[in-house]
Amino acid sequence: MENDELRAKFLERYGESEEAIHHYFAPGRVNLIGEHIDYNGGHVLPAAIGMGVHMMLRADDSSQLRIASTLDDIEHRFSVEEALALEASGQWYDYVLGVLQELHRRGVPVSGADILLDSDLPIGAGLSSSAAVEVVTAYAVMRMANHPVDRRELAILCQLVENRHVGVNCGIMDQYAVANGKAGHAMLLDCDAIESEYIPVDLGDYQLLILHTNKPRKLVESKYNERRAECDQALAILGAQREISYLCEAEFEELELVSDPVIKRRLRHVITEEWRVLLSVEALKSGEIEQFGQLLTASHSSLRDDYEVSGDELDALVDLSLDWKGCIGARMTGAGFGGCAIALIHRDSVKGFAEYLKEGYEARTGLMAGVYETVISDGVVLVDG
Ligand code: ADP
Ligand code: MG
Fold first, then answer.
1. 135-144 as b/e, with b when 16 or more CB fall inside 10 Å?
2. Is any atom of ligand 1 closer than 6 Å to the C-beta of 338?
């Protein structure tokens, strides 16, 4: 929705008043490379993207909250007191109220307000619409209260809300990327120290595309927990020989210590994926885009064969992409079993590619693929007001 249209929708719903309407925006994010190593003490390389969540907010002294989203066009009303006490109930506004509660706990004043959310992100696609909702809420309320904003702290607060209030066991990457993104740059993020370095992403003649499987992510949680348990097993095996705190510290030679073939494959993914992240950073810094593309493709093979978190739909997107002449690399991104893939496609052939991919993907899976041209963007901002 255009900005003016969203403002008109806000006024139509809540009516005019003396108070100013503030427009905030938080982007979604995509992880370029470094999959399933955040919980193994490794590095990830996410970037904020052009699509994201808009929030129109008008604060007042009514001590009433009215919250709506263009997602379902239903208005929810709470007194501030009620909103600050309500437990999560499986509704989308859990994310908003969880953030308000956490801010309140830290002494940030929460007043009455009218809020309207709108988004152009596919929801549940692994592009972190949930983190965008949390971060835009926290940022907006802090700015309204003239509270200083530390983006790192803000990300940590939002992760805590998703973990404790909503009950989703996510790492720090999503909220961090949404809060700290920088146009034209990815973030090399150490998920353990929660420290990052901006890495310029200049793809030259290539365009970063996000490809959506449109497959509901069903298996994700149980498989995610299974992989984490397998990593714990690998760590215990290596830990019996020497001091080691994280699996990403393992040496390639240590693979020989693991006899179980499954655990060995998991460990091989973790070790090689960390290498690929660091090599990707070198490739990006020196403008070797084709090298970067090859690392993306190698990451996919490792996730498919060693870590076994891909699936027919993600494999179809990646295989079809790699068969396209103008493609120099592709891989699944996110936890896997659905969600999205990314591909680097020559600028001159993006249109033809999108048609080719949709057709081939439907023939192979019976599903419609989403194809999004992606711009690497800034983190959460005040757009207007
Ligand atoms: P992802 O973060 O990958 O998009 P999640 O399942 O983590 O998927 O988060 C999706 C949830 O976030 C939605 O089910 C909804 O509760 C909330 N959400 C995302 N975008 C919006 C929006 N525009 N309006 C209201 N709620 C939203
Ligand atoms: Mg999410």
1. bbbbbbbbbb
2. no
